[in-house]
Hints:
Layout: E1 5-8, E2 28-31, E3 38-40, E4 45-49, E5 52-55, E6 61-67, H1 69-75, E7 77-79, E8 84-86, E9 95-100, E10 106-108, E11 113-121
Antiparallel strand pairs: 1-5, 2-11, 3-10, 4-9, 6-8, 6-11, 7-9
The structure holds deoxyuridine-5'-triphosphate and magnesium ion (MG).
Amino acid sequence: MKKIALKILDPRMNDYLPAYATEGSAGLDLRACLDTAITLEPGTCELIPTGLSIHIADPAYAAIILPRSGLGHKHGIVLGNLVGLIDSDYQGPLMVSAWNRGQHAFVLQPMERLAQLIVVPVQHIEFDIVCDFDESTRGAGGFGSTGRA
Ligand SMILES: O=c1ccn([C@H]2C[C@H](O)[C@@H](COP(=O)(O)OP(=O)(O)OP(=O)(O)O)O2)c(=O)[nH]1
Ligand SMILES: [Mg+2]
């Protein structure tokens, strides 16, 4: 298994280290490392510390922060940046932008699971500047060009 350096910024996180909930889980839950509950009013966005920092170090990997489906679907709590991208050279605190896109205030409790982190492979590329592409079946068709049903 790939090892990634993890720094525990808040000692309370020792009891809440991110772990895969099941053998097949893709995501590691990230918690709201707060001292007191905060209320996310509808339409507002708050940057929430996770109490952790990671250094992936290997440019062939990145981490992605995603919403939790239950919070997003039932309570409207998603991410202010929609998706968070953690660069392999980032060493700062892992933060979650919590956005209440719903109609009701949401009280976020200290240490509540707020979002999830996945680690994904990344392919660095270089560009080969061309005037024309080799023709593909799709060509420039997009945005529904293949129909709906
Ligand atoms: O949800 C997020 C998104 C980003 N980050 C951290 C890790 C990431 O490596 C860094 C920069 O993120 P990004 O490149 O998406 O933001 P930017 O607005 O382009 O900032 P920068 O100019 O620092 O790259 O911020 C988080 O902690 N949480
Ligand atoms: Mg950036």
